[in-house]
User: Fold this.
Amino acid sequence: MQATRSRIVELLKEHGRATVQDLTAATGLTSMTIRHHLAVLEAEGLVSSTKERGHVGRPRYVYFLTENALSLFPERYDELADRLLKCLKSLGARQEITQVLEEMGADIVKDYHADLAGKSFEERLDILIDVLGDEGFLASWEKGDGEYILTEYSCPYLLVGQEHPEICQVDWHVITRILDTPVKRQTCMLHGDTSCRFHIQSDFDVAVTDIR
Assistant:
């Protein structure tokens, strides 16, 4: 990113919101220059503005970062998760890790209990795809010969999973709880495959009302 625009983004991140006058004072640049760079940032979807009217004088525009701008700042969630799991393992808490991962899967599913009640198997598969999508997975399902195939093309846990493969238990528990039937993993990205594929027996297609 161009240096001046990068500085404006940093100032907005630091202060939350700012006017052209605020940014002019902080950078030493002219208001015309600041407005030009703000216009570029708005066009890129990184900055937005709102009009505020004071007690006197003309209304002013206040600028702030959009959610898209958050990607410009480093996020180390993978490193945080890696360090946390390493610390837990060093304390001998492997069983507790397993329990926590299972509980995480259950926690993800609990908000969908009402949506799942009374749904057919294929309807639950559709809901599963939406749930996985909300969690950062790109997934789809198809009906095969006597079974269903669920494919995950991307995994938000992939980097952490390379060091801690047990993290795969999270989506496993999500899948099995929503479908309420045994699932067999056939391929896994952690093993070098291009996707994670799950085979699901389709010996029933009835409405399920009791979701764990």
